[in-house]
Specification:
It comes from Caenorhabditis nigoni. The protein is mainly beta and 214 residues long. It is built from no helices and nine strands. It is 0% helix and 56% strand.
Length: 214
């Protein structure tokens, strides 16, 4: 069991940027910048991973497509004892074998056109299927880790994309003390939350106080 409430990193939002110069050698096309925003890094199966992107196209080619994936990478380690001998003694030596696998557990591809000199904001949502929770400690035999991978493609041929990857946690107990989805930034970069407790939103009426006998 992996309780995300016991891991402070699970509640930390991710904000990062990736920039790539497009083209090669004498055929430089400018650069493409992608800002990525994920409101937290800890999730449970069935939960949606919201990915907010801000694409700034400072190149001379069009952005054509955005792909987002959740990747599962597992490492399996096995050990066994094997006898070895020389002319004087026989001894056992512990040997090991490591096997690694990589699988895409969720993927979303969306066609997109961002012309040169323009920028675009968008939101992608990847719903987590039923998978093994993150295993990155306490087990000497198996590790299971998860990553969010984003690729923004352009119409050029060489060095034509911006690629970004970051790790996330998948647990079994969801985060309790976490703002509802209305706190998240939407595709247009604004917040949906309405602060109903803001005093400036209310009008206070004053009534005159009457004095004297009733």
């Amino acid at each position: 069991m992996l309780d995300l409430n016991l891991n402070p990193n699970a509640m930390v939002p991710l904000q990062d940027r990736a920039t790539e110069n497009l083209g090669c050698c004498c055929f430089k096309k400018g650069y493409l910048s992608v800002k990525l925003d994920i409101p937290k890094t800890g999730f449970v199966c069935g939960e949606t991973v919201p990915i907010n992107l801000h694409i700034v196209n400072k190149s001379s080619v069009n952005v054509t497509q955005v792909t987002a994936k959740i990747i599962q990478r597992c490492t399996f380690i096995s050990y066994w004892n094997e006898p070895t001998f020389n002319f004087t003694e026989i001894r056992e030596v512990t040997r090991g074998e490591i096997r690694r696998t990589s699988n895409t557990v969720r993927k979303q591809t969306r066609p997109l056109t961002v012309k040169p000199g323009k920028e675009h904001k968008m939101a992608l949502e990847l719903r987590l299927p039923s998978v093994t929770p993150t295993i990155n400690q306490f087990s000497p035999f198996i590790k299971a880790q998860y990553y969010v991978y984003v690729r923004v493609n352009t119409s050029t041929t060489f060095d034509s994309s911006v690629d970004y990857e970051t790790s996330i946690l998948i647990g079994t107990v969801p985060i309790h003390q976490y703002p509802p989805p209305s706190y998240y930034h939407t595709y247009n970069g604004t917040s949906r939350m309405m602060n109903f407790l803001d005093p400036s939103r209310f009008t206070v009426k004053k009534f005159p106080i009457k004095t004297g006998r009733i």
